[in-house]
Amino acid sequence: MTVKWLMHWQPKPGATLSTQILAEACQCVESIGGQKDGRWRSMLTFYKPMQRDPSVPVEHPRDFLGLALQEQPSKYYFILRPNRIVVEADASIQAIMEKLQSYKARVTLNFEGFQYKLGDFQVRIGKCVPSTSEALRGIMMEVEYLPLSSIEKSRLVLEEFFDIWKESISKKSLPGHFVPIESNFTDYGLQDRYSSQHTAVQYAACMAQLIAAVRA
Amino acid sequence: MLCCGVHLIESTRHCKFLEILQMECVVQGIIETQHVDALEILLQGLCGVPKEQVRIHELCLKSGPNLGVVPSEVRLLCDLVPSMPSWTVRHVGGSLRGPGAEQLSVLVRSVVESKVSSNVLRFFYGLGYKLDHEILKVGFAFNFHRGSQIAVSVTSAHKMPKLHATEDAVPITPNIHLVEITSPATAENYNEVVASVTSFCEYLAPLLHLSKPGASTGTVPSAAAAAAALMSNSVNRLL
């Protein structure tokens, strides 16, 4: 049982991202009672189509996302945002995609950092970096409420947690703030009972937000 | 196509995913529907495990125009036996080739499977794949261990009068059932697996001849007599 909220770091206009923000956010979790509980990592991969003739217009999407979550090591998730589809598969689906040679895994982004235990919550804070470099692309956090699996029933308690978190982080006077990821799960056919597919949809939305933040 | 022996083992060192190494040994044959009961009795005696019902909706998808370096094909299998149907993506890759592979009576090919959520068809349509054809396989199977993990399926292929109308499916060849024997293997152990599959096939020889897929040798002349003997033995045992 669990319900998870993802949040991304929205820098103030003109402010730059730095690992110092990550360090301050980690300190902030510890200041409200968070106990470090190891490292975590999720991997998000952009799959791009391979075309026989690049000059010919195509019907297929420009890309879709693949996601590997630490808490589900035997599973893999695909998110096709234009069609609002999230697919859960065994990890071997990656080998099938490679064999089909119709889409290629182009860029992989690692979301990695520390996780904390905080009563009924589990908090993960991490940076988003390409797998091939250390260039910081974003900062995000996962807040997981462990006792419930209903999104609606856990909304209030997660909102309260977020209010406490906002208040704590504001004392650091950092150049930006954390924003909860807005995901319309019903568009993807997902129900109120939280699952890893909900997490995958949030990662896809988070990725879009991080790209938008970098462009801004 | 994969190359038998050294090349296959060499190529596995560079594989990114272990699942790529997954292979299967496979043989197929056909039997007249009237002898299927006898085959079931024989298999029941040989395997010593309960038979499992088979009702698989198989959808073959092919990549759309201009998608992919080469045209590609993938199969979606929907198991209709459980109350909640389960979906699997199956990719059949190249088979072993070379003089060594030709001498084998069993086809060894790479296969990757992945269990997936039920929206996988929409996903592949979204990626630009098109439905090439669909069939419903109805019958039974035995899964057991005899030297290696062996699966024997005896099925009748059905076609659907309308798209996805599995309830209205009708047999394509009512008088013929397909028998398929498969066993999972790896690049390291396929010789032993081939041996165990070949050995098991010999038990079925009076009823049907099994060969590499695409090289069917038809029905066996001795099938009627063997089936009659099996049915008679079975009745005597019951009495």
TrEMBL record, chain A:
Lineage start: Eukaryota, Viridiplantae, Streptophyta, Embryophyta, Tracheophyta
Similarity field: Belongs to the Mediator complex subunit 20 family.
Assigned keywords, A-Z: Activator, Nucleus, Transcription, Transcription regulation
Localization (cell): Nucleus
Main location per the UniProt record: nucleus
Protein name per its UniProtKB record: Mediator of RNA polymerase II transcription subunit 20
Subunit relationships: Component of the Mediator complex.
Coiled-coil ranges (or none): none
Molecular function (Gene Ontology), one example: transcription coactivator activity
Functional description taken from the UniProt entry: Component of the Mediator complex, a coactivator involved in the regulated transcription of nearly all RNA polymerase II-dependent genes. Mediator functions as a bridge to convey information from gene-specific regulatory proteins to the basal RNA polymerase II transcription machinery. Mediator is recruited to promoters by direct interactions with regulatory proteins and serves as a scaffold for the assembly of a functional preinitiation complex with RNA polymerase II and the general transcription factors.
Top-rank taxon: Eukaryota
GO biological process, one term: regulation of transcription by RNA polymerase II
Record's GO cellular component terms: mediator complex
From TrEMBL, chain B:
GO MF terms, alphabetically ordered: transcription coregulator activity
Matching InterPro entries: Mediator_Med18
Keywords: Nucleus, Transcription, Transcription regulation
Primary localization: nucleus
Transmembrane segments: none
Compartment(s) where it occurs, according to its Swiss-Prot or TrEMBL record: Nucleus
GO biological process entries: regulation of transcription by RNA polymerase II; termination of RNA polymerase II transcription
Gene Ontology cellular component list: core mediator complex; mediator complex
Entry similarity comment: Belongs to the Mediator complex subunit 18 family.
Protein name as annotated: Mediator of RNA polymerase II transcription subunit 18
